[in-house]
UniProtKB/TrEMBL annotation, chain A:
Name under which the protein is recorded: ABC transporter permease
Record SUPFAM superfamilies: MetI-like
Keyword annotations from UniProtKB, A to Z: Cell membrane, Membrane, Transmembrane, Transmembrane helix, Transport
One Pfam assignment: BPD_transp_1
Transmembrane stretches, start-end: 20-38, 69-91, 103-127, 153-176, 205-225, 260-283
Gene3D superfamilies: MetI-like (1.10.3720.10)
Family the entry assigns: Belongs to the binding-protein-dependent transport system permease family. CysTW subfamily.
Subcellular location: Cell membrane
Signal peptide, first to last residue: none
Hydrolase found in the keyword field: no
UniProt topology in membrane: Multi-pass membrane protein
InterPro entries (alphabetical): MetI-like, MetI-like_sf
Domain ABC transmembrane type-1: 69-276
UniProtKB/TrEMBL annotation, chain B:
One protein family per Pfam: TOBE_2
GO molecular function: ATP binding
Protein name, per record: ABC transporter ATP-binding protein
Nucleotide-binding as UniProt keyword: yes
PANTHER family: MALTODEXTRIN IMPORT ATP-BINDING PROTEIN MSMX, OSMOPROTECTIVE COMPOUNDS UPTAKE ATP-BINDING PROTEIN GGTA
Record domain ABC transporter: where: 7-237
Annotated Gene3D superfamilies: 2.40.50.100, Nucleic acid-binding proteins, P-loop containing nucleotide triphosphate hydrolases
Keywords: ATP-binding, Nucleotide-binding, Transport
Length: 292, 351
């Protein structure tokens, strides 16, 4: 009697034998994510010298290391802002139904599927000193010497935009289609021209989605590694934080320092995301009346 | 208020993918009139309203406000108020800001915006809820915000797209009275779209019955209720019994009918001759159980307060809907009859 009652009470809270089905997934998560993550954090507190916080101290006292935070933010923030800002008007134009929408969406999504290495190679060929872009500029006479657009800040920036934009665009398009189109029409019958409708109705309802999209594209851009090496200047201008971590761990074999840099990288990302989500919570985040 | 003496729709046609959603609607709306566009879903009534509002471009035809052509103007420059079926309240703006939105778009002085918004909030009795967001209101309150938002601009024409269809039965009756009261007290001109004949009959000065994008009949509620022009309008006006029959003989104003297991006398709508295949339209409340008449078998009995609604079958298996004062049992054989003036006969041209 009491046994049965206990089983009932547990079942009411969702605890029953079916819960065991979770075990394999849980084991994978623990073994492949939680354990290495915790191990890395633990490692970062065990440097060869300098006490518990020695690795962190090394990172922050060395300007060459410390500056990677600013370098990475200097790439990731503008790239994420541009990706979001450029997606809004295009998605706004494309929010309705029209012929060829699927084709256009597919074309925009292609860069995601290509991967960073192929994008980087394309950029080197197209924007490099002897690429089409510069050859055209020179032959038209706009410039005498090739404009340097690769192996520096701009190369990495372009690569971040090319890979990040489709991602931001698709997210924003889906947020936009979640806004009830009748609201726009209602505003029109109340005498609002299109830009007022956009500014006062669509944009405020879209803003929380923009914040979320910004966070996601920012995090993607912040962990940039391949393009910073391939189309950037990995020893100077584009020595981003992931390069610093890689360098520490796999070239100097200072695992604690590498782990510490990885932890710092995570914390910086968390800080930016926290600020953006904090601002987002000030906005209206309720229903937008649409299907999404 | 921008005033006009009449608004004219001239052969307004709207085509969707090669099919006419609205096939040439011509209608003159006088100032102060309450017009209801009535019809089943897909009849083109909402299309007509969206064309008027400017939310759908016309395929053909024109819309005139006195001497000014309106159909080439975008919605924001027509100065009409619109109440949407889903209300379409701005979810991120308070009740007050929803209502003042249109006034602000007109760039009116701040004092006037405040005064007129206050008035509109008072008009729909939402003073206590002015600071709330639409999501915090009940359906009926949201409906009132939507109406206040449309009428605060004192529009020359108010368009309403099935505004009561999302409310429960009791609230619907309340809001119906409310809408008629506002229409009268503010001297509005209203075009109201609905599929509910009762709503249309009780609210409107004139009704436009649409079917498959075409006008079936335009008239006052009395005209449509008593003399529907054809069987489709009759169907919509509560003639639930539409029975295929044959004309046996014509006697002056009435005709003798038989068929479908019934023999009746009726009043023809339009010309009919002996031998014609016709449709007889009878309201359930006009078909009574009585001592003399046609025998039918009772199938279903529903209690409806003062009366009983009965579904019965004739000997030829045609279903009939009627009212009875005493409760018959399912399976009972009763006789039914109807006054000839209450049986409308629709001939070939009006079927």
């Amino acid at each position: 009697m009491t046994r049965a009652a206990l089983r009932h009470r547990l079942a009411e809270r969702g605890i029953d034998r079916q819960l065991l089905l979770l075990a394999p997934a849980l084991a994978c998560v623990l073994a492949l994510f939680v354990y290495p993550f915790a191990y890395g954090i633990g490692l970062s507190f065990q440097p060869a010298e300098g006490g518990v916080l020695g690795a962190y101290r090394t990172f922050f006292t060395d300007a060459y290391q410390r500056d990677t935070i600013a370098t990475t933010l200097g790439l990731a923030l503008p790239a994420a802002i541009l990706n979001v800002a450029a997606s809004v008007p295009i998605a706004y134009r494309m929010r309705g139904r029209f012929r060829g929408k699927r084709l256009l969406t597919t074309v925009l999504v292609v860069p995601i599927t290509l991967g960073t290495v192929l994008t980087a190679e394309g950029l080197l060929n197209y924007l490099g000193p002897t690429g089409w872009f510069n050859r055209t500029l020179i032959s038209v006479g706009l410039t005498d010497a090739p404009v340097r657009l690769t192996n520096n800040y701009w190369g990495v920036f372009f690569s971040l935009v090319i890979t990040g934009f489709p991602f931001a665009f698709l997210l924003i398009l889906s947020y936009l289609s979640g806004i009830d189109p009748t609201l726009d029409r209602a505003a029109a019958t109340l005498g609002a021209p299109w830009w007022q409708r956009f500014r006062r109705i669509t944009l405020p309802l879209l803003a929380p989605g923009l914040a979320t999209t910004f966070c996601l594209t920012f995090v993607l851009a912040f962990s940039v590694f391949p393009s910073a090496v391939l189309v950037g200047d990995p020893a100077g201008e584009t020595r981003v934080i992931s390069i610093a971590a890689y360098h520490a761990a796999y070239e100097v074999y200072d695992y604690p320092l590498g782990s510490a840099i990885a932890v710092i990288m995570g914390l910086v990302e968390l800080a930016v995301v926290a600020v953006v989500l904090g601002l987002r919570s000030l906005l209206y985040t309720g229903s937008t009346g649409g299907k999404g | 208020m921008t005033t006009f003496s009449e608004l004219r729709l001239d052969g307004v046609r709207r085509r969707f993918g090669g099919k006419d959603a609205l096939a040439g609607l011509s209608l003159t709306i006088r100032r102060g009139e309450f017009i209801a566009l009535l019809g089943p879903s897909g009849c083109g009534k909402s299309t007509a309203l969206n064309c008027l509002a400017g939310l759908l471009p016309l395929t053909e035809g024109s819309i005139w406000q006195d001497g000014d052509r309106l159909d080439t103007l975008p919605p924001e420059r027509r100065g009409f108020g619109m109440v949407f079926q889903s209300y379409a309240l701005f979810p991120h703006l308070s009740v007050r800001k929803n209502i003042s939105f249109g006034l602000q778009m007109r760039r009116l002085p701040r004092d006037e915006v405040r005064r007129r918004t206050d008035e509109a909030i008072k008009l729909v009795r939402l003073e206590e809820h002015a600071r709330k967001l639409p999501g915090q209101l009940s359906g009926g309150q949201q409906q009132r915000v939507a109406i206040a938002r449309a009428v605060v601009l004192e529009p020359s024409l108010v368009l309403m797209d099935e505004p009561l269809s999302n409310l429960d039965a009791k609230l619907r009756l309340e809001m119906r009275t409310e809408i008629r009261r506002l229409h009268q007290s503010l001297g509005l001109t209203t075009v109201y779209v609905t599929h509910d004949q009762e709503e249309a009959l009780s609210l409107a000065d004139r009704l436009v019955v649409l079917r498959d994008g075409r006008v079936e009949q335009i008239g006052t509620p009395e005209e449509l209720h008593n003399r529907p022009a054809n069987r489709h309008v009759a169907d919509f006006m509560g003639y639930r019994n539409l029975v295929p029959m044959r004309v046996k003989a014509v006697h002056g104003d009435t005709v003798a009918l038989d068929g479908s297991g019934l023999t009746l006398e009726g009043t023809p709508v339009g010309p009919v001759a002996a031998g014609d295949e016709v449709v007889a339209g009878i309201r359930p409340e006009d078909l009574r159980a009585g001592p003399h008449g046609v025998p039918v078998t009772v199938e279903v009995v529903e209690y409806q307060g003062r009366e009983l609604a009965v579904e019965a079958r004739t000997e030829e298996g045609v279903a009939l809907f009627l009212r009875a004062a005493e409760r018959p049992a399912p399976g009972d054989r009763i006789t039914v009859t109807a006054a000839p003036s209450r049986v409308l006969v629709f001939g070939a041209g009006t079927r």
